[in-house]
Amino acid sequence: MKHLLPLAFLLTINVLGASKSRPNFVLIMVDDLGIGDVGCYGNKTLRTPNIDRIAADGAKFTQHIAASPLCTPSRAAFLTGRYPVRSGMSSEFIVGTFIFSASSGGLPKSEITFSEILKKEGYSTGIIGKWHLGLNKERRDDFYHHPLNHGFDYFYGTTMTHLRDCIPGNGSVFVAGAICYLKQPFLIAFLTLLTFIFLNYIGLFNIPKRVFGYIFFCIIIFVGPMVFFFWKFQYLNCILMRNYQVIQQPLVYENLTQRMTSEAVHFIQRHENKPFLLFMSYIQVHTALYASAEFRGKSKHGIYGDAVEEVDWSIGNIINELYKNKLHNNTLIYFTSDNGAHLEEVSSSGEIHGGYNGIFKGGKATNWEGGIRVPGLLCWPGVIEPGTVINEPTSNMDIFPTVVKLSGADIPQDRIIDGLDLMPLIQKKSVIYEHEFLFHYCNAYLNAVRWNQRNSSSVWKAFFFSPIFHPEDSEACFNSHVCPCCGHLITQHDPPLLFDLSKDPGEKNPLTPQTEANFYNILRTIEEATANHRKNIPVVDNQLTLNNVIWKPWLQTCCSSWLELCNCDHDKELVLERFTQIHQ
Q: Rounded distance, CA 461 to CA 510, Å?
């Protein structure tokens, strides 16, 4: 014991000293990765040794919560430390994310990202991979919502989400949805038009030919551009950019994860003598899935497993580069997913392409635990004790204040920051975290509330409504991609559904006044917290209105003339050189 005291003292001095330095930051986010897909969270069949290494060398959060179960709002919350509803980055209708590169909505410039703050502190900032928070606003080249206008110095990736329409032969998200939602209106309109033509032909109506001409003209004007867009979707929406330049259109998926890895390695090399923040935002494992030749067919879970294992390989290369440049001891690494796995994803050939959320109910687009409980790992050698496990509820919004404070900057005081600094909890200066309540939104609608009750082992969760969701029903329109948040497609709960996550993490057995003596007192406390929360939600311009998410041809970015159908590839010149270097 006497020999251990000096060691403990030195460790304390090391922790306190290191925590005052300005570390580098490598923030890793995988798209649609389930908490059950990772070895350190219990998976026994997928190989994720490099992700597991982050957990072994640092801290693992067992209740790490995404601020939204969908990409766009979750990423907005991550970058700003604020619930997405505060910035207008949450939809009031069924489409909850940006789906077209030529939309006008995006992360408002009035929002402050951690990259903006760190850039002012002298950090070099880069994002590689998926942005998904808008591009242009009024012109095709104003780049109003571009990541370089939100505090990043360097960008290599795609401004949009990755959809199966981007890879030929993988089916279409839009065709199935259009058939489902529009088949009845189009059928009625088509039959009505045929009826008028027939009645006109037999003489019961005398409709001038110019009226039919007007109808045909309207169809060409309004339907024509959309037909053209979906015909050329791969060219118009699947785009690779370096900074403000489109360098590949359409996006080529061959070795894409390896190219992103090469970009990350070079970013670290360029900034080894200057503090940096690298946001590694993987395009995988969102469908359509892809994997490089070295990984395809190597896992036990088809193309999904291949993609996960390639991402793990990529993370290993980034960690090794930090060690190679002797930066590991002064670099904080964070690993997470933007939301839970998309369980219902099935390829056009019928192969299951969704991930695994372990024991947790539901998946992407729902606020059941499977949709919002995500991997959360934090590693900083010499500062965070290896093998630390944190069971308190934490949020992906917490990264904002954690990163900002460690950089030496101040937290903005002119707005509400919902995230909290993680370091006191990780360094065991605080036994209980300050997130007493977390609010779970389904698009712009408050769906559920989590209460981490003080002086109790219970974590309560109350649902105000749940989607009507029957994936086995072939008539359940679009349910494999979007769960409804309002209207006749949800079931309201009065009283709310109540669960004790400490005893029922799978949310299988709602509590009742008969099974929980404090049922009404618990709900009363949650409802009071909800009322106080709602008072502090401002009225802002919604960035995900129909007008802000539809395709606008005048905002379409194009690397060549329209006559050449937006076709170019300027990324090849560096691929061979960097691909060779990364395999040496």
A: 10
| Contact assessment for residue 165 and residue 172, using Cβ atoms and an 8 Å cutoff | yes
Local structure of 59: helix, strand or coil:
strand
The whole-number pLDDT of residue 446 equals 98
HSE-CB at 545 with a 13 A cutoff on CA atoms is 8
Domain count, the chain: 1
Q: Which is catalytic among the residues 3, 40, 64, 71?
A: 71
Question: Residue 169 domain-assigned?
Answer: yes
HSE-CB at 118 with a 13 A cutoff on CA atoms is 32
Question: Does 198 reside within a domain?
Answer: yes
Is 271 among the catalytic positions?
A: no
Give the mean model confidence (pLDDT) for residues 412-429: 93
475-500 pLDDT, tens digit each: 444 444 667 898 888 999 999 999 99
The three-state secondary structure class of 178 is: helix
Question: Global pTM?
Answer: 0.89
230 assigned to some structural domain: yes
Please list, in sequence order, all residues whose beta carbon lies within 8 angstroms of the beta carbon of residue 21, skipping any fewer than 6 positions away: 330
Buried/exposed code over 547-558 (b: 16+ C-beta within 10 A; e: otherwise): ebbebbeebbbb
Q: Is 452 helix (H, G, I), strand (E, B) or coil?
A: strand
On the question of a cis peptide bond just before residue 495, with omega within 30 degrees of 0, the verdict is yes
d(CA 237, CA 230): 9
The per-residue pLDDT for 222 is 61
Residue 71 among the catalytic residues: yes
307 within a domain of the structure (yes/no):
no
Structure tokens at 406: 């460690």
Query: Distance between CA atoms of 574 and 561, rounded to whole angstroms?
Result: 24
Q: Are 570 and 248 in contact (CB under 8 A)?
A: yes
pLDDT tens readout for residues 144-158: 999 999 999 999 999
Confidence class of residue 577 from pLDDT cuts 50, 70 and 90?
low
**Secondary structure in 3-state letters for 201-270:** HHCCCCCCHHHHHHHHHHHHHHHHHHHHHHHCHHHHHCCEEECCEEEEECCCCCCHHHHHHHHHHHHHHH
Candidates 132, 328, 342, 353; catalytic one = 132
What strands, in cross-sheet order, belong to the sheet with 154-158?
388-395, 59-65, 376-379, 331-337, 24-30, 276-281, 124-130, 154-158, 240-242, 245-249, 568-569
pLDDT per position as a tens digit, 164-214: 889 888 877 776 555 454 445 555 555 666 676 666 667 666 767 666 666
Which domain does 194 fall in, by range?
164-237
